[in-house]
Write a structure and sequence with these properties.
Layout: H1 2-8, E1 11-13, H2 20-24, H3 28-36, E2 40-43, H4 46-55, E3 58-61, H5 66-78, H6 80-90, H7 96-112, H8 114-117
Helix pairs in contact: 1-3
Length: 122
Amino acid sequence: MTQHLFAAGLVLVTHSDRWENHRLALPNKLFHAVQAGVPVIATDVGELARIVRRYDIGTLYAPGDADSLVDAARRAVAGYRTLRQAVREAAPELSWETDGRRLLEVYTRLGTDPRISGRSHE
């Protein structure tokens, strides 16, 4: 799959703004694109848009707006080299390894917090 994404050169990551879980979600497709070293064209929705903006790893379009999608694709093609460089720079931060390490740190803190674990630190 990663080879297909790399060969395609751009990845379309779509979400609707209709449901709260879409506004809060970060689709695996986003992280797979980063792993492949490929910029995204993504819907301008919630957390997905926040990550794309924060790391400048793609362009955004308004969900359901075909003209906005065409504009985002044109901007992605025009700025492709810059976007690819941004993806390379963001890859360590947005990697499965970094995410897994952070998750384990959270679980460790939760397991040692007496307010949550029910254990005292006596």
